[in-house]
Design brief:
The complex is a heterodimer of chains A (886) and B (113). Helices cover 53% and strands 14% of the residues of chain A. By secondary structure, chain A is α+β, with helices and mostly antiparallel strands. Chain A has a six-stranded mixed β-barrel. The termini of chain B are far apart. Classes of the chains: A alpha+beta (886), B alpha+beta (113). Chain A binds chain B through residues 23-24, 26-28, 30-31, 33-35, 37, 56-60, 62-64, 66-67, 69-72, and chain B through 1, 26-29, 45-48, 50-51, 54-55, 58, 69, 71, 73-76.
Chain lengths: 886, 113
C-alpha cells in the first residue's frame, strides 16, 4: 500500500462523507456507463452513446444532491462545499474581501477591547473563590473612610455578615539590606486572607490569632510579583527579616500568582497587619475614632442574606454609634458594592466611562454592518445573473441563500478573528501600561472565555445581520427575466429609495455621531488645557520626601524640613523653594471639615462645607505662582506658640463670609475645635486631579501649626530640570542617607489630572476616526457603484453635451444627498447623545459653534474625499468608447 | 421526479421493491426490470431512481453491495432485506385493495346505485 493510499483510507475512515460521496458518484457513473453500453449495442458510436446516456439520465447534479440529502449526514458535507465555494468566490474579488474583513476587524476589535475591559474591571474583577459573595463596604454619596474603632464596631455588632475585613493603602521604605526603596502595601486586618478564601503560594498568611494589640504582628506577606522581581523566586525568603520604615518585619509567605488584593486596579507589593499601622504610617491612629484611616472593607454575607439587608444592619450599627459618639458621627450611609474598582467613588466613573464606550463601540459595529450590508446588496445585484443561472439549473433558493450566508459568515469570522487578535495585542500593552508612574495603578486584563465568546457571538451576529440584506433580492429573482435583461438593479436604478440607500444613510448618521463625539472630546481637552489653574507649574520641580519612612517624629521632622529648604535655596538657579503636604493638581489631596465660628457642636452634619486643605511653608505662594489678593503670607513666626492663622481662597471666603472683601480678620473653626483667623485671601485655582472641577474652597495653614511628615518639596528654578533633580537628590542624601525620594516635574505630576480628558479624547478620537473611515468607505462604495452602473447613461449625457456639473450631479447626486441627510441626522443624534458623552467628557456639549462647524466641515471633507475617485471616473467617461462596447 | 411523485405517491418505491424482489439488481438493472415487467408502460426518469434507492436502503428495506455486472462493469447491486420483503407484501396488499376499490368504484353503473 502506497503512503498516499494509506492516508486516503485513513482520511476516509475519519470522513465517512468522503466515501459516501465517492460511492454515489461512482454509482451514477456506473449507471451512465451501463446505459451507454446498451446504446452502443444499438449501433451508436461510444461518444454519442455516452452523450445520450447523460441526457437521458437527467439533471445529474440535482439527483446527486438529492441522493446526498436522502443518505443523511450531508449537512457537514454541504457546509464544507459551501465554504470551499465561498472561498473561491471571495478569492475572485480580493478588494471586496479585504475591505469587508478590515471593516469588521476594526469594529469587532473595538467591541472586544471595550468588552474585555468591562469584563476585567466590572463583570469579573476578583479572582477569588466564591467571588459572587464578596462585597465591598462603601458609602452612599461622598468618598469617605472608616476609622478603625468604627470598623471594630461593624465587625463585632453586625448580625448579617459572615465576615468583614478592613484594609487601607499605604507606602513604606523597604530595606532588604540594599538601598531602601519605596514600596506600596496594603495594611489589612488579620482575617483579610481568610475572608478572601485563598491559599498562600509559599509559607503562610497572617490570621486574626496573630493580632495581639498595636504593633504586635510585625509580619509581611509578599505578592507573587514582588517576590518574583525583588527576591528572584527565592523560596528561602520565608522567615527572613526585612525593614519597613526601619522597623523589622518577618516575611511570612507569598500570595498566589495573580492575587493582588481586593482592589482590582491597584497592584500592591505586599500586605502587613493593620495592627502594625503605627510603624508604617508614623502616627498611632488605630484607637482614634476621629481619624478615618481605614480605606475600605471587604464583606462576605451570611447565607440567605441580601446586600440590602446587610446594609440596613450595618447602618443600624452606624446610627447606634452616632448616638454614642456624636462628635465622630458617620454622616454617609453604608452600602455594599461590587468589589474591585474603588466602589462608588471611582467605580461609578469607570462604569459610566466604559458603558458609554461600549455603547459607542456597538454603534461602530452597527455602522460596519450597515456598510457591509450595502456592499453585499450591491454585490448580490451584480451577481443576479449568477444567481439566476443557478436557479435555472435547478438549485433551490434556500441553497443559494445558504451559500450567500456562508460567504457573510466567513467574512465576519475572519474579521472577528483579526479584530480579536488586534484587541488582545492592545490589551497586553494596556496591562503593562502604568498611567501614573508613582502610583501602582494598572489595568489587569486577562481575557477569559467570556471575551472570546462575545467576539465570536458578535462576529456571527453581524455576519447574519449583513448577510440578510440580499435575501429579498434572491427570493425575488426571476431567472427568466434576469437572463433576458442585463441585471436587476439597472432596470430600476435611480427610481426609488432602495434598502441600500437607507443603509448608507444610517451608517453615515452613526458615523456623524461618532465624529461629533470625538470633536466634543477634543474641545473638552482643549478646555481643560486652557483652564485657569491658579498656579504656574512651569519650571517647578517636585520631590516627595516621606519623613515618617525615615523615622522622624513631628518635632525632629519640623527642624529637618527647615534644613531641607535651606539646602534647596543654595542650589544655583533656584529662585524659590517651599514645602506643602500636596502640590495642587496631583493625584491625591487632603480635605477638611470647616465650621463657622459660631458652631459649638462640631459633629460632621453641622459643618459649613468640606474644603481642600494645604499645609504649607512661608514661601509657598511665590513658589507655586499663586496670587494673594489681600492680607499677608505666612512667616516662620506662625508656629505653635502664636495664634492659629489661615489663608483661604476667594471661593472659601465667598461661601463662609459672603464675600472675599470682608473675610480678612474673621474666624472659622476646624474639626478639632481650633478657631483660625483668616490673614490672607488667595486666588481660586484647580486643586484636585481634575482640570474640569468647579470652583473649590481651599484653606492653607502654616506648616509649623499643622505639621505634616509626608511632605513635598517644590523648587522653582531657571535651570535644567534634570540637573536640578539630581542636585536636589544629592543635597537631600547629604542631609539624610536613608531618605526615600521621589522627584518629578510639576508638569509630569499633572499627568494624572490630564489623564481623564486625555483618555476621553484618545478613545473618542479613535472611535471618531473609525467612524470617519467607515463613512468614507460607505460613500465611496455607493458613489463608485452608481458611477459604474450608469457609465453608459453618463456617456450618452456627455455625448448630448451635458456640462461637467450636470454629469457630476447625475453621477453623484444621490451619494451627496445621502451624505447630507445622514450627517444632519447624525448631528441631531449627537445633540441627543450629549448625556452619554457627559459620562466621558466633562461639560460635554455639542451645542458649541466650533464643534458644530467642525463636524460639518469634517463630514463635507469626508464626502469630498470619498467621491473624488468616482467623480474623476464619471468625468473621464469617453462616450465613443462606451457606446462602441455594445 | 416531482411530477411523478405527485401523480402516484409511493409508486416508485413499490416498483423498485418489486423489481428487486425478483433477484438482485444494479440501479440500471432496476430500471430495465421495471420497464420489462410493466411492459414499458411506466416511464421513469433515470436519475430519479437513485434518491429513491438510497431512501429504501436508509429505511433498511434494501441492502446494497458492490459487484460486477454481466458486461464486466463495477456496479452496486441491491437486494431485499427481510424488512423489505415484509414491506413489499404489505404495500402490494394495500395497492391491490386500493386498485380493487378504485376499479369497482369506476365500474359502477347508474342502475346499480
Amino acid at each position: 500500500m502506497s503512503l498516499s493510499a494509506y492516508f486516503r483510507s485513513l482520511a476516509s475512515r475519519f470522513f465517512r462523507r468522503e466515501s459516501v460521496s465517492c460511492d454515489v458518484e461512482e454509482e451514477l457513473r456506473a449507471h451512465i456507463a451501463l446505459r451507454a453500453d446498451d446504446l452502443e449495442r444499438t449501433g451508436l458510436s461510444r461518444a454519442e452513446a455516452e452523450r445520450r446516456a447523460r441526457i437521458e439520465f437527467g439533471a445529474r447534479d440535482r439527483y446527486r444532491e438529492e441522493s446526498f440529502a436522502t443518505l443523511g449526514g450531508n449537512a457537514f458535507d454541504n457546509v464544507v462545499r459551501d465554504v470551499l465555494f465561498s472561498l473561491r468566490v471571495l478569492r475572485k474579488s480580493p478588494g471586496f474581501t479585504l475591505i469587508a474583513v478590515a471593516t469588521l476587524a476594526l469594529a469587532i476589535g473595538a467591541n472586544s477591547l471595550v468588552f474585555a475591559l468591562l469584563n476585567a474591571l466590572i463583570l469579573r474583577p476578583l479572582q477569588i473563590p466564591d467571588a459572587q459573595n464578596f462585597w465591598d463596604l462603601d458609602h452612599i454619596g461622598a468618598l469617605s473612610y472608616l476609622s478603625y474603632p468604627e470598623y471594630l464596631d461593624l465587625r463585632d455588632r453586625n448580625h448579617t455578615l459572615a465576615g468583614i475585613a478592613a484594609y487601607t493603602i499605604s507606602n513604606a521604605a523597604i530595606d532588604t539590606g540594599a538601598d531602601p526603596a519605596p514600596a506600596w502595601l496594603i495594611e489589612a486586618s488579620g482575617n483579610y486572607f481568610d475572608l478572601a478564601g485563598i491559599q498562600p503560594f509559599l509559607g503562610r498568611f497572617f490570621h486574626p490569632s496573630d493580632e495581639r494589640g498595636p504593633n504586635s504582628a510585625p509580619y509581611v506577606v509578599l505578592t507573587y510579583n514582588y517576590w518574583h522581581t525583588h527576591f528572584r523566586d527565592d523560596r528561602g525568603v520565608v522567615g527572613r527579616t526585612i525593614r519597613l520604615n526601619k522597623h523589622p518585619f518577618t516575611i511570612l509567605g507569598v500570595a498566589p500568582p495573580g492575587f493582588i488584593g481586593t482592589l482590582a486596579i491597584f497592584s500592591t507589593d505586599m500586605w502587613v497587619p493593620i495592627v502594625n499601622q503605627q510603624q508604617i504610617d508614623g502616627l498611632a491612629i488605630l484607637a482614634d475614632r476621629g481619624s478615618h484611616s481605614v480605606m475600605g472593607a471587604g464583606v462576605r454575607l451570611k447565607p440567605g442574606v441580601t446586600t440590602v439587608q446587610a446594609a440596613a444592619d450595618l447602618n443600624a450599627v452606624r446610627l447606634d454609634q452616632n448616638r454614642a459618639w456624636p462628635k465622630f458621627e458617620q454622616k454617609e450611609p453604608y452600602c455594599l458594592v461590587r468589589p474591585g474598582i474603588g466602589g462608588n467613588f471611582l467605580g461609578t466613573a469607570i462604569t459610566a466611562f466604559l458603558g458609554a464606550l461600549m455603547l459607542l463601540a456597538s454603534l461602530i459595529l452597527l455602522a460596519a454592518c450597515a456598510n457591509l450590508g450595502s456592499l453585499f446588496a450591491a454585490r448580490a445585484s451584480d451577481r443576479s445573473r449568477e444567481v439566476a443561472l443557478r436557479l435555472a439549473l435547478g438549485a433551490r433558493r434556500a441553497r443559494i441563500l445558504r451559500q450567500l450566508f456562508t460567504e457573510a459568515i466567513l467574512i465576519s469570522l475572519a474579521g472577528g478573528a483579526a479584530g480579536l487578535a488586534g484587541s488582545l495585542a492592545l490589551l497586553h500593552a494596556l496591562t503593562l501600561w502604568r498611567p501614573f508612574p508613582q502610583f501602582p495603578m494598572n489595568i489587569p486584563v486577562s481575557p477569559d472565555a467570556r471575551v472570546y465568546l462575545v467576539a465570536l457571538f458578535l462576529a456571527l451576529a453581524s455576519g447574519f445581520l449583513f448577510g440578510a440584506v440580499p435575501v429579498r433580492l434572491v427570493l425575488r429573482t426571476d431567472p427568466y427575466q434576469v437572463i433576458k435583461s442585463t441585471s436587476i438593479s439597472s432596470a430600476r436604478a435611480g427610481r426609488r429609495i432602495t434598502l441600500r440607500d437607507v443603509l448608507v444613510a444610517v451608517q453615515i448618521a452613526i458615523c456623524a455621531v461618532l465624529v461629533t463625539s470625538s470633536f466634543v472630546a477634543l474641545r473638552g481637552l482643549a478646555r481643560s488645557l486652557n483652564a485657569r489653574l491658579g498656579v504656574d507649574p512651569q519650571h517647578v520641580m517636585l520631590a516627595e520626601v516621606n519623613l515618617s519612612m525615615a523615622g522622624y517624629s513631628d518635632e525632629s521632622g519640623a527642624a529637618f524640613e527647615r534644613r531641607m529648604l535651606d539646602a534647596m535655596k543654595t542650589i544655583p538657579g533656584v529662585t524659590q523653594a517651599a514645602l506643602a503636604n500636596n502640590p495642587p493638581l496631583k493625584m491625591g489631596w487632603d480635605v477638611t471639615s470647616v465650621f463657622s465660628d459660631q458652631t459649638a457642636d462640631l459633629r460632621p452634619s453641622n459643618e459649613a462645607f468640606t474644603s481642600i486643605s494645604y499645609n504649607i511653608s512661608p514661601e509657598y505662594f511665590q513658589t507655586a505662582g499663586t496670587t494673594l489678593f489681600a492680607g499677608r503670607a505666612f512667616t516662620w513666626n506662625d508656629d505653635k506658640s502664636s495664634p492659629p492663622v489661615a489663608i483661604v481662597n476667594a471661593e472659601f471666603a465667598r461661601r463662609l463670609f459672603g464675600s472675599s472683601q470682608n473675610a480678612l480678620g474673621r474666624h472659622f473653626k476646624m474639626r478639632s475645635g481650633t478657631s483660625l483667623e483668616v490673614v490672607g485671601i488667595a486666588e481660586d485655582g484647580k486643586y484636585t486631579a481634575n482640570l474640569a472641577e468647579s470652583p473649590q474652597p481651599a484653606v492653607f495653614r502654616p506648616l509649623l501649626q499643622a505639621h505634616y511628615l509626608d511632605i513635598w518639596l517644590m523648587v522653582r528654578s531657571t535651570g535644567d530640570p534634570q540637573i536640578l533633580a539630581s542636585t536636589m537628590r544629592n543635597r537631600l542624601r547629604n542631609l539624610d542617607r536613608s531618605l526615600p525620594i521621589f522627584s518629578q516635574t510639576w508638569n509630569e505630576s499633572m499627568n494624572g489630572a490630564l489623564f481623564a480628558p486625555r483618555m476621553a479624547t484618545a478613545s473618542l478620537g479613535i472611535l471618531g476616526l473609525m467612524g470617519a473611515i467607515l463613512s468614507i468607505t460607505g460613500i465611496f462604495g455607493l458613489a463608485a457603484y452608481s458611477v459604474s452602473k450608469r457609465l453608459k447613461e453618463l456617456g450618452i449625457r456627455i455625448a448630448l453635451g451635458a456640462r461637467r456639473s450636470e454629469v457630476l450631479g447625475a453621477a453623484l447626486g444621490r451619494a451627496v444627498r445621502l451624505l447630507a441627510i445622514g450627517s444632519a441626522a447624525g448631528l441631531v443624534l449627537g445633540f441627543l447623545a450629549s448625556r452619554v458623552l457627559a459620562f466621558i467628557v466633562y461639560q460635554a456639549t455639542p451645542r458649541d459653534p466650533l464643534v458644530l462647524a467642525g463636524v460639518v466641515v469634517a463630514m463635507a471633507l469626508l464626502g469630498l474625499l470619498a467621491t473624488w475617485i468616482p467623480a474623476q471616473r464619471a468625468l473621464a467617461v469617453n462616450p465613443l468608447v462606451l457606446l462602441r462596447e455594445d | 421526479m416531482p411530477d411523478q411523485a405527485q401523480l402516484l405517491p409511493g409508486t416508485l418505491d413499490l416498483l423498485i421493491l418489486k423489481a428487486v424482489s425478483l433477484g438482485p439488481l444494479h440501479g440500471y438493472g432496476v430500471l430495465l426490470r421495471i420497464a420489462q415487467i410493466s411492459g414499458s408502460a411506466l416511464l421513469i426518469e433515470q436519475g430519479a431512481l437513485y434518491p429513491a434507492l438510497f431512501r429504501l436502503v436508509r429505511q433498511g428495506l434494501l441492502k446494497a453491495s458492490w459487484g460486477t455486472s454481466e458486461n464486466n462493469r463495477r456496479a452496486k447491486f441491491y437486494e431485499l432485506t427481510a424488512a423489505g420483503r415484509k414491506r413489499l407484501r404489505q404495500e402490494t396488499e394495500g395497492w391491490e385493495r386500493l386498485a380493487g376499490a378504485m376499479a369497482s368504484a369506476l365500474a359502477a353503473r347508474p342502475e346499480e346505485v
